[in-house]
């Protein structure tokens, strides 16, 4: 678990370090979205691995106690996937609804004609 925490921090810290300045609520929401966009693929991959691991345990289990434990692992994996994808979708819906994207690009100025 310690290695997973270190790997997660190593994956998320660049997003935290790239936060320039937070001036209002919209910047905070955009900052949270950037952190979630950075960390979520890693967490979803971990949930998929947990789900597949539970399936292998279920198929290889010989007695009833091991099968029950494997079933609970599979259920926890499915619940984790559902919660993470739902939160990711909800955050993206909120960002799109309230136009919280801070990635607006400024168009270059047109050259002027000297007088």
TrEMBL record:
Pfam families (UniProt xref): T4SS_pilin
Keywords: Membrane, Signal, Transmembrane, Transmembrane helix
Protein name (database record): TrbC/VirB2 family protein
Membrane-spanning ranges: 43-61, 73-95
Signal peptide: 1-19
Organism ancestry: Bacteria, Candidatus Tayloriibacteriota
Organism listed in the record: Candidatus Taylorbacteria bacterium CG10_big_fil_rev_8_21_14_0_10_41_48
InterPro entries associated with the record: T4SS_pilin
Keyword hit for Cytoplasm: no
């Amino acid at each position: 678990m310690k290695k997973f925490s270190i790997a997660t921090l190593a994956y998320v810290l660049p997003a935290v370090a790239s936060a320039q300045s937070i001036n209002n609520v919209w910047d905070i929401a955009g900052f949270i979205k950037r952190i979630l966009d950075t960390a979520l693929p890693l967490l979803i991959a971990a949930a998929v691995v947990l789900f597949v691991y539970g399936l292998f345990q279920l198929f290889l289990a010989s007695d009833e106690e091991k099968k029950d434990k494997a079933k609970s692992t599979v259920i926890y994996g499915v619940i984790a996937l559902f919660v993470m994808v739902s939160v990711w979708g909800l955050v993206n819906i909120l960002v799109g609804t309230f136009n919280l994207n801070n990635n607006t690009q400024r168009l270059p100025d047109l050259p002027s004609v000297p007088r």
